[in-house]
Structures are given as C-alpha cells and as structure tokens.
Amino acid sequence: MATLKSVCFRGSTFPVCPSNFTNTRNTRSSCWRPTQAAVKSNFHLPMRSFELKNRTSPEDIKALRLITAIKTPYLPDGRFDLEAYDDLVNMQIGQGAEGVIVGGTTGEGQLMSWEEHIMLIAHTVNCFGGKIKVIGNTGSNSTREAIHATEQGFAVGMHAALHINPYYGKTSLDGMVAHFQSVLSMGPTIIYNVPARTGQDIPPHVIQTLAESVNLAGVKECVGNDRIKQYTDDGIVVWSGNDDQCHDARWGYGATGVVSVASNLVPGLMRELMFGGVNPTLNSKLLPLIDWLFHMPNPIGLNTALAQLGVIRPVFRLPFVPLPVDKRIEFANLVKEIGREHFVGNKVVEVLDDDDFFLVSRY
Q1: What is the C-alpha to C-alpha distance for residues 96 and 67, in angstroms, rounded to an integer?
Q2: Keywords, A to Z (predicted)?
Q3: Phi, psi torsion values for 9, nearest 5 degrees
Q4: Active-site positions?
C-alpha cells in the first residue's frame, strides 16, 4: 500500500495523499485527518504601530477631569453638519473641557456607519487634536468590529478608545475579559460600564483583571458611587458616567471626573463642578436641568435642547424624536432660571413647534 506524505503547515502536520494513491474501500478517511489546531489565537495579529513619538500615554488620559460626550449634529438630509459640529467642539474647548467622546451614545455612534464613525474621529483629530483629547468610541458587541474600528481609530490619530462590553448577544465573564484584552493592546482605553444599556454589568473582578494592562486608562462607571469608591480604593481611575452623581463622585468617592452629557449645554458650569471643590449649591442648581435631560433616553433631551438654543439644526435621525412641547417649554424656563449666559450659543432660547423638526429615516 502506498504511504501518506506529510506536509508541515505553521507547526501542524497534515497527511496528504500522493497523486497515484487509490483506496477503493476508504479513500476519504485514508487521505484526511482532523487537525488539532486549525485556528491559532495569534494568527491574525492587530495592525499595531509601535511608533510612540506622537502617541498619547494612558497617564495623559487618566488626568482628564471633564470629558464631554459630544453631540453629532445633522443637515436636513441627515448627513453630518460639520460646521455646527466644529462650533460645538470649539465651545467645549473655550469653556475648559479637556476631552471629547466622539460617536458615543450621546453622539449617536449607533446610528452611524463605520465609515462615518471613523471619518468623524479623523475630522476631530485633524481640527482639534492639539487642543483637546479625542476619545473615539470604537466599541462593539462584535469583537471583530471592535478590533477593526480601534485599529482605524488609532491610525487616524485618536488619543484613546472607549469600549463597551458586548450587549444584546451577551457573553460569559471570561468572554468579556477576552473581548477587552483583544483591543487593550492597541492604545489607551476607557472601559464603559452601563448595564442599563448593555443588559450586563462588568463586575469589579473583570476590571481588576484588565487593570494588569498598562493601556487601561480607567473606567466610565454608571452603576453608582459605591462602585466608584471600590475602584478608587484599588487605585483604578474612574469617571462618573452619571451627571446627577458626578459632584459627589468627584469630591466624596475619589472619581477623577465625569464623562458628561450636560456639559454639551453648560460646559463652564460643569468645569466649575469638577475643578472648583465641593459646591453643593451649584450642584443643586444644575440637578433640575440634568433631571430634564434624562427624562427620556439620552440623547433625546440633549438634541431637543441644542436645537432650541439655536446651535444645531432641529434634525433627528430616527428612531430618536424630539421631546413633546410641554418639555420644550420646561427647558426654556430652565434656561431662564439658570441664566442664558451659562449655556452654549448666543441666540435667544426658543420653544420650537412640532413642524420645526426634521425626522430623517434614510441618510
């Protein structure tokens, strides 16, 4: 009987039939053997760059106290309104924000194609990267997508990545660790824990495992201040993900700062809240506005507010729709109570009619 030849392929030996080999009884089973490791974990390596001279260190990200989850404005046809976007970012820079999250939940990254998403990160870096830290939301519930988007985000110059745990198609805790570890090696990373949106908490022992990586800049934590205290006691940097809790998180529980939605509207006041020491009076002044912002799921309130302030067009990508008119009137009253001078833009706040809004389903 003819003998099988062996071919070496990346460390595995595969039996191969010679061209003249025949076996009428069991040709298939004689010519094929199942391999022990057809797929290797390190076969597809991330396209990392080790050029460091223009890269941001995790320590630079850890020092940020006010990070704004920046809104993405639209033109009437649903495309990005980059002119309005640039104005929004400039207002953040002028009022003392130190970083922006691009394409996060507030920026409606979930409604963007990846091409739009990476383009907006690149645009922000190109225009503002020397004045403010640009943190790109390149997270996904697909590890493959998260890896690819993070590679692209760092390639276009973002300073750090924001990553969420896999949502909807939830995984095990070991799978969660593996998911995050697959992107942590690429650059400074903030892990985002928001169980209300993902349906799954990231427990402390997962974060403690990930903290072994030098690239873990910290955690954006939405579970509450007791969890924040647990991390800060362990020396892990944390930002509050809840505007209504951020004052106490900063001054009572050790949080470095906040990733804020409200700072889109009142960046100067949010900076004062994060930089100026314990200030329960200012915190109480802002709580009605923050409560209003989150009356409906974010970013519905923010989109409505910015349109009424005249700094963006009243355009919504569906499935988001504006708040009802009674809430729009309530916002105008809040602006008057807090003081129009504290809000972004310089136009008189308006109460828009239903017909003033564009709802875009195809863009």
Answers
A1: 10
A2: Amino-acid biosynthesis, Diaminopimelate biosynthesis, Lyase, Lysine biosynthesis, Schiff base
A3: -130, 105
A4: 192, 220
Say whether domain 55-276 belongs to CATH 3.20.20.70: yes
Q: Identify the residue whose tokens are 């400039």.
A: 90
Q: Which residues of the chain have pLDDT under 70?
A: 1-54
Name which of 145, 99, 109, 104 is nearest 267 in CA terms.
Answer: 99
| Cα 89 from Cα 91, distance rounded (Å) | 5
Q: Dump pLDDT digits (tens) for 15-26.
A: 444 444 444 444
Write out the DSSP string of 33-91: ---S-SS-TTSS--------TTPPPHHHHHT--EEEE----B-TTSSB-HHHHHHHHHH
- For residue 96, give the DSSP letter: T
Q: Which bin fits 49, alpha (ψ -120 to 50), beta or left (φ > 0)?
A: beta
Check residue 236 and give its pLDDT.
98
**What type of residue sits at position 327?**
K
Give the β-pairing of 315-317 and 5-9. unpaired
Q: How far apart are CA 178 and CA 231, in angstroms?
A: 21
Task: Find out whether 66 and 258 touch, Cβ atoms under 8 Å.
Answer: yes
Strand partners for 260: 68
